[in-house]
Amino acid sequence: MEFVFLGTGCPVVSTERYGPAQLILSDGTAVLVDCGSGVTQRLLAAGTPGRDLDALLLTHLHSDHLVDLYQLIVSSWHQGRDRPLPIYGPPGTKRYVEGLMTLWEPELSQRIAHEKRPSTAALKVAVTEIAADEVLSLGGLRVTVVPVDHQPVRHAFGFVFEGGGKKLAISGDTRRCPALIEAAAGADLLVHEVFVHREMPVVPGVRSAETVANVAGYHTLSSEVGKIAAEAGAACLALTHFVPPACDRQALLDEVAADFAGPVVLGEDLMRIDLMRACVNHGNAVVSLGGGVKRSH
Fold it and tell me: Which residues are catalytic?
């Protein structure tokens, strides 16, 4: 099993960290989790264009996690996709996708009529709404839907992937959540969001003290995420969905490592974690995770 950070950012625009998106590869199965801004470019750069995806999972219906959905559908069609894209998401996903496709219908109809491509099957989106604790089978992957706490968002999920003797847990957007800690127990890799509170000062005209407090209130603070990984007994912790996108990386690493003794990876766009080989790949660099990500299940 391999995990690829496609976008490690948040709603704050960044040229380093694109919108939230993650790719899981296992024995010929390719699953995309969320489709934030720039996901189609990142998929292409990662060597798995939208054409080749087996499924898209949505953690929740916040804009930064699904803003490029239409682009994903159309670009996959342009790449020669010959089948609908299965989309799994929380209640409300069908309404959102139907509304999105209705909004773009005039443009899409014009494209279909003018471009004369061999198939339009990729434009027939297949949506399945999922529920907490549901278990999906995607190729050789077993995926458990984990309810997380992102209130006031009513339906928000994390996911636990199991395959090839490995266990990968993805938090989605959440404050500290006992259900996620329980579901991630003994994971070879826990991929968790992080809110770096000290780097989100009040800025007049941009964010007030109330803004900062409210945003922090439904995310996981950098002072908490290491404790969560330790409590879950994860072999390795990787951070993503950095709020804000630009932060003092060394200070963040020191803070998290004070609470978690295992390997800590600060995710970067297009970084890959190979759970089978227990290593991180980024550009031409390959780094061993040592004792992390070596358990069998």
Answer: 64
Q: What is the pLDDT of residues 176-231, one digit of tens each?
A: 999 999 999 999 999 999 999 888 888 899 889 999 899 889 999 999 999 999 99
> CB neighbours (10 Å) of residue 14?
18
CATH topology of domain 2-288: Metallo-beta-lactamase; Chain A (3.60.15)
- The residue extents of the domains of the chain are 2-288
Alpha-carbon gap, residue 194 to 202, rounded angstroms: 19
Distance CA 277, CA 125 (A): 35
HSE value, Cβ hemisphere, 13 Å, CA-based, for 291: 4
pTM for the full model?
A: 0.95
Q: Tell me the three state secondary structure of residue 52.
A: helix
Rounded Cα distance between 157 and 92, Å, is: 13
Average pLDDT of the chain?
A: 95
